[in-house]
Specification:
The chain contains 20 helices and 22 strands. Helix content is about 35%, strand content about 20%. Belongs to the TPP enzyme family.
Length: about 575
């Protein structure tokens, strides 16, 4: 027997069968979705800003490794999501955006809020589809969910015309939840790569964000078997245990100076699940001039063509499993000793630097990061931004992600406010402690949805590094000796104190010095355990930057060789 449902009943019914439990967004004016929610058991987190809503949904998806859902209206409501979609696409966040659209009966008539939404969205999603007939609605939902989680995960878009939402949807079959497929590399490609790996004496493995979907320790076992140095891209952090003896930090821009030698000496680099963005490949034209590169990706468009070597199409875990079962050379003792020596130097220099900071007034971000690792649980989910001071957490060994922890960072787009908003989605998704390390500029941009956390009682520990504004721009301006110009990106007025809204659910704390920092962090954890939203304002010095980014030129620091001449 064929049963007819309202479009929103059909949509919510499908999402429930697909395992979706939370929705984010701000619905359209007709509010038809509201009548379909009560019997579903789903929670709709009503956001105040559509951009933040997509950020939250992305944080949820990256925490659960499942498809998240965002619901918005049409026209400007949809255009407000574009920054979030740009971030979700580059992060590989499986996310379904549902938006209302102008009805087909009114297209081209200058209807209220009419816009070519498909054209706006299409470059930013894996698939964009406008449902023109009710018979295609459930099909569209199934296809969108399938595409969101398979291949390289990413956002998808379904547009719901207004006139469609007044019709009935015939349902004559049981909706099928999306199936997650595997993609094994071909034997020919594996053999070609193995021909390089089996003779390598100084292998290096780079783990990208595409490997965050797995939970196997095969990468660490493979590294042990072949004596391979382990690095991660910024988005790939926490995919492997950073306490592993062969883990050496973050690639490219964020590689500790003491660990650069490992890249210079390596005789093969194996990249797993990385698009090799500019931050990950910073200085590779110098460090890897003649080093063959083996790239493993599940999407053709994710391969970089600037490097010689072998491309392997398929799942990175499947490829490593295959190589792990083959017998290669024993680990090279000299290579392992060099890795150990470089790591010891990096940790020694970190210890010297922290000791130096103890003698200076105020609280410095490296000191704060050390206290986070000693005072907060290891299984935390750390959301990060990409500002001048919060970037310290990208530099290993100043912060290390142990097994069981999770790192969520902005993509190479580094959308301001992403980490602050995504922290709410992450907190909804997990029972692990959620900490957001953000700058005051990012936190202020997120502020419209601060009340959302209060209304839904979403606990997060926000560590807000207050340097009085946009520190990265001010630092660049100072470096170029333009500080006399009347463009103050930071100000002492802004740094006098943040105005945190006062609610019973909110605990506001301040860290001005290293002497009070540990006690305030301990108090923050106590209040968080009481299910509170905790905002810790940390007074940050504009000069507190890592040496790698102290010489700023445009979007990126100067190369080491150039910086040393300045």
């Amino acid at each position: 027997m064929t049963v007819s449902l309202s479009p929103w009943d059909a949509i919510i019914g499908y999402l429930k069968s697909a395992g979706v439990r939370h929705l984010f967004g701000l619905p359209s004016d007709d509010l038809q979705i509201i009548s379909s929610l009560p019997s579903s058991g789903m929670d709709f987190i009503l956001c105040k800003d559509q951009r933040n809503a997509v950020f939250m949904a992305a944080g949820y998806a990256l925490t659960t490794n499942q498809m998240s859902v965002c619901v918005v209206g049409k026209g400007p409501a949809l255009s407000n999501t574009l920054t979030g979609l740009l971030e979700a696409k580059n992060l590989g966040a499986p996310l379904l955006l549902l938006a209302l659209g102008t009805g087909g009966d009114k297209l081209g008539t200058r209807s209220f809020q009419e816009a070519d939404q498909i054209s706006l969205v299409k470059p930013l999603v894996k698939w964009a589809y406008r449902v023109e007939h009710v018979d295609r609605l459930v099909w569209a939902m199934e296809r969108a969910a399938f595409l969101a989680i398979n291949g390289a995960p990413g956002p998808v878009y379904i547009e719901l015309p207004e006139n469609l939402m007044d019709q009935s949807v015939p349902i004559g079959f049981q909706p099928a939840p999306p199936e997650r497929l595997s993609c094994s590399p071909s034997l020919r490609e594996l053999d070609a790569a193995w021909g390089i790996i089996e003779t390598a004496r100084k292998p290096l493995i780079l783990v990208g964000g595409g490997m965050k979907s797995g939970n196997s320790d095969v990468i660490e076992r493979f590294a042990n078997q072949h004596g391979a140095a382990l690095f991660a891209t910024a988005s790939g952090r926490s995919a492997v245990d950073e306490e592993h003896e062969l883990f050496c930090g973050v690639a490219g821009l964020y590689t500790d100076i003491s660990l650069r030698r490992i890249w210079e000496e390596s005789d093969v680099v194996i990249t797993l699940g990385s698009r090799l963005e500019e931050t990950a490949t910073f200085e590779w034209d110098i460090l890897l001039q003649d080093t063959p590169l083996i790239q493993v990706n599940v999407e053709l468009e994710d391969f970089a063509h600037e490097y010689k070597g072998v491309k392997v199409l398929g799942d990175g875990y499947a490829a490593v499993e295959q190589w792990h079962d083959r017998l290669g050379q024993k680990p090279d003792g000299e290579w392992l000793e060099m890795i150990k020596s470089c790591k010891e130097k990096a940790f020694s220099q970190r210890a010297v630097y922290l000791e130096k900071l103890k003698k200076t007034p105020g609280i410095h971000v490296p000191e704060l990061l050390e206290m986070i690792q000693t005072e907060l649980p290891e299984n935390l989910v750390l959301l990060q931004e990409n500002g001048l001071q919060d970037m310290w957490s990208y530099f290993y060994p100043y912060f290390r992600f142990a097994a069981g922890s999770l790192s969520i960072v902005p993509s190479d787009q580094t959308s301001l406010g992403f980490g602050a908003a995504a922290a709410l989605g992450a907190s909804v998704a997990t029972e692990c402690p959620v900490v957001a390390l953000v700058g005051d500029g990012a936190f202020n941009l997120f502020s419209p949805d601060f009340i959302t956390a209060v209304q839904y009682r979403i606990p997060v520990i926000y560590l807000v590094l207050n340097n009085g504004g946009y520190g990265w721009l001010q630092n660049q301006m100072n470096y170029k000796h333009l500080s006399g110009q009347s463009f103050p990106f930071v100000s002492e007025t802004a740094k006098t104190g943040m105005q945190i809204p006062q609610y019973e659910f909110v605990e506001s704390l301040v860290i001005r010095s290293k002497e009070e920092a540990r006690g305030q962090l301990q108090l923050a954890w106590e209040k968080y355990q009481e299910n509170k939203l905790v905002v810790v304002e940390v007074y940050a010095d504009l000069a507190d930057v890592h040496e790698k980014i102290s010489h700023v030129y445009g979007d990126f620091p100067l190369y080491e060789q150039q910086a040393s001449k300045n």
